[in-house]
Design brief:
This protein is an alpha+beta fold and about 350 residues long. The protein contains 8 helices and 18 strands. The strands form 6 sheets. It has a 5-stranded antiparallel β-sheet with strand order 1-2-3-7-4, covered by helices on one side. Strands 9-8-10-16-11 form a 5-stranded antiparallel β-sheet. Strands 5-6 form a two-stranded antiparallel ribbon. Helix 1 (about 40-50) packs across helix 3 and helix 6 (about 225-235) packs antiparallel against helix 8 (about 330-355). It starts with a strand and ends with a helix.
Length: about 350
């Protein structure tokens, strides 16, 4: 299988399967001399870890990361950083009943058609279990970016239920299991998702990722557009079906006058009077907040019987048992943050290499 890596100078390669002995990644391109310990990475992994509430999969994985190389006496050496997480609670037998059937909405059929092989144990390599290593790599990326860049994510819609932006509070994101910035909405979501979970179904979500403190000048205007790389990174997250930046699709409803982010000088500093561009113009960061949103489809593993075919190309039905998220969007929040961090770290190093 090819294409297990992303990034140019800050490059991440992941390996491992959902029900294999372990998963891991290689982070290449980290500058030497950066303070890095396992706890710097673990804090972000704990946000994504399964089993943290009744609204996510109850697979019990501590997701304890180990640094195997690239760090000496608490600092990066400039050599490849190898990270590893052991799988401890895989239950392959949960999938034995569907090993010859293709789950609708999953990558089972396309993976089988491409490679002629299928690892039915939780989806194998294409499983969302792999995203733990993206979060680990994101922890390294945040150290490269430094404390001046702050990356935060929030769920702004769960199924049909939306937040009220007038009640937005980043502090609230840490106080509920949905990373929801609206306390009132989060309270309603608990009852809403409980009903979905108990029915054996699932719902989708919309996630918003914001990066503050990003300097102007990251990105390139033609084939190295910052927004293009960010969009590709978010679309590469499992179950993501759409991405928008800034005003996104709402831009179609704006006039040219409304959409243009006017610029003024205030106290010898450049100030934009709006941010419809989402912090990126012509593929290059403006110095404003970077704002990106992505939509996550409903979890495909549900208890309701669905029509499908088997490997013998016969019609059949399937019901997926096991431990699954009623909304994969919840744990997609820290994954989105990590992908933002990795892309920004890569562009920061690329900018430094060209412009000093």
């Amino acid at each position: 299988m090819s294409d297990n890596s992303f990034g140019t100078l800050f490059r991440v390669t992941t390996w491992g399967e959902s029900h294999g002995p372990s998963i891991g990644c290689i982070v290449d391109g980290t500058p030497p001399g950066i303070a890095l310990k396992e706890k710097d990475i673990q804090s972000w992994l704990d946000k994504r870890r399964p089993g943290t509430s009744r609204f996510v999969t109850q697979r019990k994985e501590p997701d304890k990361v180990k640094i195997l190389s690239g760090v000496f006496e608490g600092k990066t050496t400039g050599t490849p950083i190898s990270l590893c997480i052991e799988n401890q609670d895989a239950r392959s037998k949960d999938y034995s009943a569907i090993k010859d059937k293709f789950r609708p909405g999953h990558a089972d059929f396309t993976y089988w058609k491409k490679y002629g092989f299928r690892d039915f144990r939780g989806g194998g390599r294409p499983s969302a279990r792999e995203t733990a290593m993206r979060v680990a790599a994101g922890g390294v990326a945040r150290k490269v970016l430094g404390k001046s860049v702050k990356i935060r994510g929030a769920m702004i819609q769960l199924g049909t239920e939306k937040i009220d932006r007038r009640r937005w509070s980043w502090i609230q994101c840490e106080k509920n299991p949905f990373w929801c910035p609206d306390a009132k909405a989060a309270s309603k979501w608990e009852e809403y998702l409980d009903e979905v979970r108990k029915s054996g179904s699932s719902v989708g979500a919309i996630i918003e990722i914001v990066a503050s403190g990003v300097p102007a000048g990251l990105g390139a205007p033609i084939y190295g557009k910052l927004d293009a790389d960010l969009a590709q990174a978010m679309m590469g997250i499992n179950a993501v079906k759409g991405v928008e930046i800034g005003s996104g699709f709402d831009s179609a409803c704006l006039t040219g006058e409304e959409n243009a982010d006017q610029i003024r000088m205030e106290k010898r500093k450049v100030k934009f009077q709006s941010n419809n561009a989402g912090g990126i113009l012509g593929g290059i960061s403006t110095g404003q907040d970077l704002i990106i949103r992505f939509v996550v489809k409903p979890t495909s593993s549900i208890l309701t019987p669905r029509k499908t075919i088997n490997k013998q190309k016969r019609n059949t039905t399937i019901m997926t048992k096991g431990r699954h998220d009623p909304c994969v969007g919840i744990r997609a929040v820290p994954v989105g943050e990590a992908m933002m961090a990795c892309i920004l770290a890569d562009h920061q190093l690329r900018h430094r290499g060209q412009c000093g």
